[in-house]
Amino acid sequence: MRNRTLYLSIALLALVGALLAGCAGKGALEFTANGEDFVRQGFVSKDGWQIDFEHVYINLSDIAGYQSEPAYDPHAGGEIQADTKVEMPGTRTLDLAEGGPDADPISLGAMADAPAGHYNAIEFTMTPAESGPAAGYSLVIVGAGEKDGQTVNFTIRIPTEYTYRCGEYVGDARKGFLEADTSTDLEMTFHFDHIFGDAETPMDDDLNVGAPGFAPFAALANGGALDIDMAGLKANMPAEDYRMLEEILPTMGHVGEGHCHCEW
């Protein structure tokens, strides 16, 4: 009788465990990339150039979402601590400028069977592409700057690999809450106003103080065209402008307005 009771207790515990696991459930975790309205609609740089983008190719790899515990602090840096991690395999080259001016962020796809819960951290790497329009580079920016009747068609090529670790998305709505049999998204956001500055932001704001602006690039154009990589910029751009560019590029990666820790 005692053995029978023991077996029933074990079976009951197993059933309760299975039911609890079923309650947690699984869903689909979608990863998206967003160049924001700056890329889709264009903007005026801090030094008065109207910037419009034709293509913004970015190559992303090592993408993973986490249920972080404790919550990840990008200002402290380090590894993300989490028992639950959902990885997206492979490398993807995206054009952040594709679609119309009101296009949604670009989907990289969804990982089905992701454990339910709050995905409050994300990690991703900008890495040089092996092929395609960004071959050899992690970021290729193609567009035009116009000011006072002068137009500069530019292609700026960035080869550096940047790894970003970010906490929870910061924006109008919270993201990353995944319930069983539903879907949610995690967004990787890229702030291109960090490079060129923004005329609609006060000039003494940190954004504009740290941004090179577009004038240092325009000054290197030949016949209204500029096609250059970081080596060319280092060799030809004024040292202070190049220093600002080197320091600002790692800050582009965000989660909405939330900050990320960057290693390169």
Explain what you see.
The structure is a single chain. The chain is about 20% helix and about 40% strand. The protein has one domain. The N terminus is likely disordered. A hairpin with a 5-residue loop joins strand 2 and strand 3. The strands form 3 sheets. Strands 2, 3, 4, 5, 8, 9, 10, 11, 14 and 16 form a 10-stranded mixed beta sheet that branches. A 4-stranded mixed beta sheet has the order 6-1-13-15, with no helix packed on it. A two-stranded antiparallel ribbon has the order 7-12. It is built from 7 helices and 16 strands. The protein is elongated and about 60 Å long. It has about 260 residues and is of the alpha+beta class.
Average the pLDDT over all residues and give the rounded result: 92
In what range is the share of β-strand residues?
A: 35-45%
Low-confidence blocks of residues:
1-23
Principal-axis shape equals elongated
Number of domains: 1
Query: How many strand segments?
Result: 16
Structural class: alpha+beta
Give the helix proportion (percent range).
10-25%
Radius of gyration: 23 Å
Distance between the termini: 66 Å
How many H/I helices?
A: 7
Descriptive terms for the model:
264 residues; ten-stranded mixed β-sheet; four-stranded mixed β-sheet; 7 helices; 39% strand
